[in-house]
Amino acid sequence: MTAPEGSSPFDEVTRQRTKEIIARYPQPRSALLPLLHLVQSVEGHVSQEGIRYCAEALDLTTAEVSAVATFYTMYKRTPCGEHLVSVCTNTLCAALGGDAIFERIAEKLGEDGKPLGHEETAGEPGTPGSITIERAECLAACDFAPVIQVNYEYFDNQTVESAEQLVDALRRGEKPAPTRGAPLTDFRTAELELAGFHPDLAASVEGPSAAPETLRGVELAAERGWAAPALPDEMPAFPALPEKS
Amino acid sequence: MTDPLTPVLTRNWRAERSWSLAAYEQAGGYRALRHALTAHPDQIIALVKDSGLRGRGGAGFPTGMKWSFIPQGPDGPGAKPKYLVVNADEGEPGTCKDIPTMMADPHSLIEGCIITCYAIRANFCAIYVRGEALHPIRRVRHAVEEAYAKGYLGKDILGSGFDLDIVVHAGAGAYICGEETALLDSLEGKRGQPRLKPPFPATSGLYASPTVVNNVETIASVPHIVAGGSEWFRSMGTEQSPGPKIYSISGHVERPGQYEAPLGITLRELLDMAGGMKDGIPLKFWTPGGSSTPLFTAEHLDVPLDFEGAAAAGSMLGTTAVQVFNETVSVPWAVMKWTEFYKHESCGKCTPCREGTYWLVQILERMVHGQGTEEDIDTMLDICDNILGRSFCALGDGATSPITSAIKYFRHEFLDLIAAQPAVARPEQLAELSGASA
Questions:
Q1: Is the Cβ pair B169, A31 closer than 8 Å?
Q2: Which candidate, B137, B97, B130, places its Cα nearest to that of B256?
Q3: Which residue among A18, A39, A158, B378 has the highest number of C-beta atoms inside a 10 angstrom radius?
Q4: HEC states along chain B?
Q5: Is B156 left (phi over 0), alpha (psi -120 to 50) or beta?
Q6: How far B313 CA lies from chain A's nearest CA (Å)?
Q7: How does A121-139 read in b/e, with b if 16+ C-beta sit within 10 Å?
Q8: Which pLDDT belongs to residue B426?
Q9: Domains and CATH numbers, chain B
Q10: Alpha-carbon B32 to chain mean position
Q11: Is A140–B244 a contact, with Cβ atoms under 8 angstroms apart?
Q12: Mean pLDDT over residues A158-169, rounded?
């Protein structure tokens, strides 16, 4: 089942990273989810070859790896665009405009009057400016609804207009700044980071601590002089050791 | 009497680079760890029991009791390696508290992990963060690196003889992995499908070894309890539901966001803090703790939002994800959207949930298309009755919550929709019903 020597897309660097991922865990199979992210960082999706690669690395069958790869929505079975645009269309975001946003960008990116579908790509996958779109479930940013992610970076408080502008900029090859988070890269780099390899973590970790919405409660408390009861000056003694029963 | 808002977990979120080790230590961070390492592990478990801390991930199970179920001792099950797994797979619709916590204050989570692992005698901890949360993953990984460099992680932590390694594990997009046993299967490199309980993770968790699975907010509360003591912690909240809690307000309010209050606050108070209903359009329905908690209405403005209060009023506290919807939103439409979510996320292991959510979506979509019948309402209730309590995990139960509560409070809306036939095309109707901006 091994691919002929020289034809594998998984080079020495990837093989080294594979070893590093496996070494993180008490048991090798725990490495499978990060390994599938790693495969996507190389290929832009999980191919049959990617599945074989993971199976060999972990001594699993390809059926076992396929079963996992097809279970999770973040593993794409067809080549992804340079960017993955995820629009939350769960109830709350949808009520605030998420459905309208998805429909508008799907229309905009479609061809011959046919809107682009969920997990379909505008442009040649992987080439600059290509975009895959998807309807996403709740992205845990409900106080910023409606939200979009590009390569899993948040773009908060979107409107149909701002989403159109975002997509236009991406198509032109630009990389607009996310609302919170690191400067935009591309889908493959994001997948490499998810696998645990951050090209420059000291730089990419920067950015605001929190968005204004996140701080509303703590700022209101400061404004009104509200606080939790003061902590004792000394940390209190621990309870006595419970008696062994 | 405590103040209406009591920032504890959120207190340092405004600090410059609050996510860095320097800022965290400047605010007193890692002092609780030094204090904890002077105690016997069982004393820490006793302290957390005394504090009354209950799990912040939705179920509200007493945290100290969960820790005390981990078998200890040199022989038998106590001799196996023990694990802490942090559930950071935040995805319950409406829930958005753990991601800001990891963004703004990852070190409180790391310090909580170290203290917890010391208490339960675990030397390996995995933080399972949903994959879509890329920047929080960077923040937590960076915090872990800083903690290693400072000697808070690794071998012989602060000269205590205690060793701990933490791995930050990215998920891959599956709501079900927020369920603790599905999360464990996923962390073992499998499909995220729930396990039959018992055995519980405390005896047979990760790699069939004793495992504690706790939510981010639960673990981040631990250093504060060590620093303040159980009496201090209990000075907030209620007897049965003590402590501060992050309430996430979203939807049709003027100032959505995170508001940390003592458990037991009401929606009336929260709405007041959040600037009231957006544009003054009246409240129609809301969830107290995510879409899996039965809906409340304007009748429930004064229900105390603690574990007992929410339950007594017919819902659940859940994750205190307060999603607020105004009168422009159609209840059948909202329920349809949620049900589509549960159908998509059902892992397929248990027939009642897999098939039931599929049928419910068909009925609801037909209704919203303008092709429902009165009989459909009873059919849905019947299907819900056949899902509730008949699957391994709570996903199926959660799927029934919006439907049964919506029919309880808003049956007339389903009937009106049926009466308003003939059919209209779905997208147009959706836009009209949801009040979505064009």
A1: no
A2: B97
A3: A39
A4: CCCCCCCCCCCCCCCCCCCCHHHHHHCCCCHHHHHHCCCCHHHHHHHHHHHCCECCCCCCCEHHHHHHCCCCCCCHHHHCCCEEEEEECCCCCCCCCHHHHHHHCHHHHHHHHHHHHHHHCCCEEEEEECCCCHHHHHHHHHHHHHHHHCCCCECCHHHCCCCEEEEEEECCCCHHHHCHHHHHHHHCCCCCCCCCCCCCHHHHCHHHCCEEEEEHHHHHHHHHHHHHHHHHHHCCECCCCECEEEEEEEECECCCEEEEEECCCCHHHHHHHCCCEHHHCCEEEEECCCCCCCCEEHHHCCCCCCHHHHHHCCCCCCCCEEEEEECCCCHHHHHHHHHHHHHHHCCCCCHHHHHHHHHHHHHHHHHHCCCCCHHHHHHHHHHHHHHCCCCCCCHHHHHHHHHHHHHHHHHHHHHHHHHCCCCCCHHHHHHHHHCCCC
A5: left
A6: 23
A7: bbbebbeebbbbbbbbbbb
A8: 47
A9: 21-234 (3.40.50.11540), 244-326 (3.10.20.600), 331-434 (1.20.1440.230)
A10: 25
A11: no
A12: 98
Mean model confidence pLDDT for chain A: 95
Q: What is the pLDDT of residues A29-78, one digit of tens each?
A: 999 999 999 999 999 999 999 999 999 999 999 999 999 999 999 999 99
* Known binding positions of A for [2Fe-2S] cluster: 88, 93, 138, 142
Look at residue B370 in the predicted model and tell me its pLDDT: 85
Q: CA triplet B42, B43, B46: central angle to 5 degrees? A: 90
Inter-chain CB pairs, A–B, below 8 Å: 314
The answer to whether residue A16 scores a pLDDT higher than 90 is yes
pLDDT at B428: 47
Give residue-wise pLDDT tens across range B267-312: 999 999 999 999 999 999 999 999 999 999 999 999 999 999 999 9
Task: Inform me whether the pLDDT recorded for A101 exceeds 90.
Answer: yes
What pLDDT is attached to residue B304?
98
Best of A76, A205, A223 to disrupt the B interface (most B CBs within 10 Å) is A205
List pLDDT tens digits, range A51-63. Answer: 999 999 999 999 9
Cα A106 to Cα A84, A131, A135, B293, B408: the distances in Å are 13, 11, 10, 33, 37
In sequence order, what are the beta bridge partners of B297?
B285
List, as ranges, residues 60-119 from B with C-beta within 8 Å of A. 81, 90-96, 98-100, 103-104
Domains of chain A are 12-69 (1.10.10), 83-186 (3.40.30.10)
Shortest CA distance to A66 belongs to which of B190, B348, B183, B175? B190
Residue-level pLDDT at B279: 97
The Cα–Cα gap between A77 and A235 comes to 54
Tell me how close the Cα of B435 comes to any Cα of chain A, in angstroms: 7
**Residues of chain A found within 8 Å of residue B246, distances taken between Cβ atoms:** 217
Q: Between the CA of residue B127 and those of A241, B198, B309, B350, B365, what are the distances in Å?
A: 29, 23, 31, 27, 38
* B168 interaction partners in chain A (CB closer than 8 Å): 196
What is the value of ipTM here, to two decimals? 0.96
Strands B257-262 and B283-287: unpaired
Q: Structure tokens of A184?
A: 């935009």
